[in-house]
Amino acid sequence: MHDSAGVGADRHDAAEQGTVVTPSAEFPPLDDAERAALGRIGARWHGPRRADDLPVDPTPGRRAGRPAPTRFGRLTPIDLFTVAQPDELVATGAAHLPGNRFGRAVTRIRRTLVGPPLASSSVLYERMRKLVALPVLSSDLLSSVAYGPEAMLVVLVLAGSAALGLALPLAALLVVLMVAVGLSYRQTIPAYPHGAGSYIVAGDNLGRTPGLAAAAGLMLDYVLTVSVSVAAGVHAVTSALPGLTPWTVPLGVLVIGVLLAGNLRGVRTAGNIFVLPTYAFVVVVLAVLAVGYAKAAARGFAPVPPPSVPATEGLGLLLVLRAFSSGAVSMTGIEAVSNAVPAFRPTEWRNARTTLGWMVAMLVTLFAGLVGLIHLDGLVPRADETLLSQLGRVTFPSGPGYAILQATTALILLLAANTAFNDFPRLLFFMARDGHAPRRFLHMGDRLAFSNGLVALALAAAGVFVAFGGHTERLIPLYAVGVFLAFTLSQTGMVVHWHRRPGPGRRRRLAVNAVGATLSGLVLVTAAVAKFTEGAWVVVVAVPLLVLLFRRIHRHYATLHRALALHPPPPGPSGPAGSAEGEELPQQVRHLVIVPVARLNRASLRALAYATSLGRPTLAVHIAPEEAEADRFREQWRAWGDHLRLETIVSPYRSVIGPLAHYLEALHSSRPELTLTVIVPEVVLRRRRHRLLHSRAEQRLRAALRALPGVVVTSVPVHVSQ
């Protein structure tokens, strides 16, 4: 009750903003200053004709007849568009099809893999109910119990089998940590119902750099989640089928590809795919615990002595801390719900908080139960078989129980990466919205999934998986630092959040987040120090480098925004002479049209005719390799009628692109207020194979001229039918 009252203002603000995860996020609105500048610019706009004086009806749906079919008619039939309003057309599904055979074949393959496209309005229905969200978002968290206890015991056994007795007190501390962090994130969800978790919380309360550090930690965590989950899943498969061990890396890459294809089908479809394996894993592990503890009860809960293992390291504080931080990887994924609040059905924050509560309860039950049962059965880690596999053989010595356990374990481990596929693209979306990541990550694909983010995650995870050979034990040391960095910054940010917002229950909520921040910080420092030489140094170095990269990206977008932002028009009727690229009014534009002409043929004459029809000063330029060819071209020009001014440039080194680009740059330097419009004649070949027979000088010329300021490059195509 107090939680609802204490964060009512936050939820109200978020409700007023609406969901921020929409296809329109790629097109941010103008701010008040730009709107005012836009109005002042429009008041001084003097065009050559009225805006509605057009030679063709721009709304083809109003026409009674249908245009005659042409070779390119499939691109322009009227039925590709419908009229929604007098000044608005809506593109139908057919309008999205490419106009060539290759493009249509690729589209058919893509739709077979990911399904038909969804309309933008369907984003409101691509939400998950709690029964679907629980397995989708908890698959990473719950699957970690398959390797988290083993990761802790692998370190303890280095001090000999006698050190395994420390597993129970360490597990108790980890349960306290799980509950504390879980309660902290339960408070974060209603306070920040728009999602993005640690990145938004740390950025809002601690500053931009801590927010970016939290984002960097989360991104590394998500990439490692995919790599570790797939590695552990493949290891579970090879434990049951040792003959597949040489195929570890190809199998892992194949699984990542399957996960990518499944998630490209959209949030709701992917959720339905991954529901059953998670629930099946939970049920089977609970059955293992029930049968195992029943057998232990029959012998009076007397632990089975573990086999003797010689010590290779001394039992010291550093080894215990390493074991604790290794076991803490069982908590990875606990932040997933706070990142994906907008993916829930309304009321989003309430459903998300309930789901998180169930996730933490299931995690504590499975983790504590497995550690206790492993201790009672006297099991020790082995290189050739996972601890969960050993436990399954002891619990189900006969019958299908062991096979079912291994199948469900392998399946959930392979699909646990789906949590990262849900949250990584969403995190990139929020970062791109703030200008700290490339804006392409704002784009939603055909199925309203963040396709670019999904592909980026799959490529990064596959690269890490291949680089480490698919070995789980090599990846685990990299795992805890990034995620606990995000935990620590998020919970510290929530402490500042409650400190700034007085209200009923503030001290209690602040204390809960303070405990979560303190415990997470201790694990972070422990993992960074204890596992630094084992590979944690990679994350310690990568986080500041990623933060620097994010800041550079933001600086670029800030510079771009300042360059493109709307400003009030300069004083005077047309404004002072200056850069041509600073002109915003038609009456300010001073044209010079330039047509590069290599030879006089139908393509060049059409370009010259088009340029002259614009009614602006026009100059033709010819690059000749020697004087004789220059004289010959001038003679042909006079035979044509010498209708336009011709400038001939002799290039004795036979280069064309360089001299022309430098010539145009010299013209622009002498009159920077001029807009140089370069019209390039271009021959368009119908068959792709014929392009190899041509130099494509037009393309190279366009590429060279596009870099020049104050120069507009356009082309006049001439289509060749064969």
Automatic annotation (TrEMBL):
It comes from the Bacteria. Its main location: membrane. Residues 59-69 have a biased composition (Low complexity). It holds the Pfam family AA_permease_2. One of its GO terms (molecular function) is transmembrane transporter activity. Residues 1-27, 46-69 are annotated as: Disordered. InterPro entries: AA/rel_permease1, APC_K+_Transporter. It is a multi-pass membrane protein. Residues 1-15 have a biased composition (Basic and acidic residues). Signal peptide: none annotated. Keywords: Membrane, Transmembrane, Transmembrane helix. GO terms for cellular component: membrane. The chain crosses the membrane at residues 154-183, 218-238, 244-261, 273-294, 314-334, 355-376, 401-421, 448-470, 476-498, 510-530, 536-553. It is found in: Membrane. PANTHER family: POTASSIUM TRANSPORTER KIMA. This is Amino acid/polyamine/organocation transporter, APC superfamily. It comes from Micromonospora sediminicola.
